[in-house]
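URGENT: need a sanity check before tomorrow's submission.

F., can you look over the 3-sulfolactaldehyde dehydrogenase record below? I want to be sure the sequence and structure line up before it goes out.
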Amino acid sequence: MKHYTEQFINGVWQEGTSTSLMENYNPFTGELIYRYQAASQQDVDDAYQAAQIAQIQWAKTLPEERKDYLKKLATIVADMEQEIFDLLCEESGGTKAKFAFEYGDTLKVIDDAMAYHMMMNGKIMPSNVLGKDNYVYKIPKGVITVIAPFNFPLLLSMRSIVPAIACGNTVVVKPSSETPGSAFLIAEMFEKAGFPKGVINVVAGRGSEIGDYIVSHPTSSLISFTGSTEVGQHIGKVAGELLKDVSLELGGNQAMIVLEDADVDQAAKAAVIGAYSHQGQICMAINRILVTPNVRDQFIKSFVAYSKEVKVGDPTDEEVFIGPLINERQAQKVAENLQATIKAGAKVELEGKIEKSVVHPWILSNVTNDMCAAKCEMFAPVCSIITVKNEEEAIKVANDTEYGLSNSIFTKDLYKGLELAKQLHSGMAHVNDQSITHEPHVMFGGEKYSGVGRFNGQWVIDKFTTEKWISVQKIDRY
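Structure tokens as predicted:
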């Protein structure tokens, strides 16, 4: 993969001015990929200044001009497919299967955003004042800050960057320290597509040095953050004190409910995808599977059998479905949570090996909602099976969590599935499918500790724009 050792500010690649050095490691081999000079607070100031100046002109570009820029961007992304895969594989441990999903949906995000400039619709409203016309305009928010995660660093960055720019905003991006190259690769894509200088700026530095500084910077109109609930709460607190808008996509603790009339084999196959995709390092990954007594044993048997067929290891191997966690620290944390859950009475149905940063699938049964593996977001290929008496208890147990992102229900009675899905306290729910589901034109977002705000389509347009009332008094009023 290409080594990105410079920041991208106002269309110029330049070395960071912090005294700190940052390191980028391969999560599978543990080898150092490269070092680079971190961004300082002055670099952050320069990035915001560039974005603020560029935004004035960018907002004035004609709708078709912005569409043409996005067309060029899509072409560049298509041309760089292999380069993108190499980077995501080496830097984040992504497998070929994970790349196909992330890359494909990134292209869809760009394609959908080509219409956003025509969806910034205002209103003409009547007035109770004689001779007055009321106009409500939808205008860009200004400069949007995007703080990206390590797990899907391309898609979950572009999901905010592209709509923001399509709506006439400019952007400052801070990548995760675990995956900085992905954000600089995005900057290179926009550079190759010919976007004006300052429209996108990328600064990578230590959170302790520039994290809060970025969130509290007066130039930024909105913080779009994807990551852990704990960090999201802190960002919300800092931004809230400044009355700064936020869009927060945070953690999850997804439940799959398997009812007695479900196709158990299909549910087991879906659970493999929902629990193990990208090593379970997905906010929508299945953490708990709730089964009724009559299907419990059959489901466990099928789920274990399908899980044993999954290939684990080197993400460069195209047959591998489960690669490494982002680092060995995370794997050690998983091991500790597993031992705590087993000690509390859980039964091991499938014991996975833990080899450095690689965690093989684990399946636990006899789990209760208060056990560590069930109440925590494991962010690993670990699944807890909880037995419930009936569908009423299934809904109660599924909702008994501080999270509320994406759940699923398996049943042959589609209408019942739909009605039960309405009772789940989550932003998204899927009947006869697993929880890792994303369509760039459909609303995406969570409830409770899983986040604030909505992505995609009209929802993201509304979030990344603001409405302004202008009245025109056509005859003398006074």
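My own read: The domain at 254-431 is CATH 3.40.309.10 (Aldehyde Dehydrogenase; Chain A, domain 2). The mean pLDDT is 97. If you see anything odd, call me.
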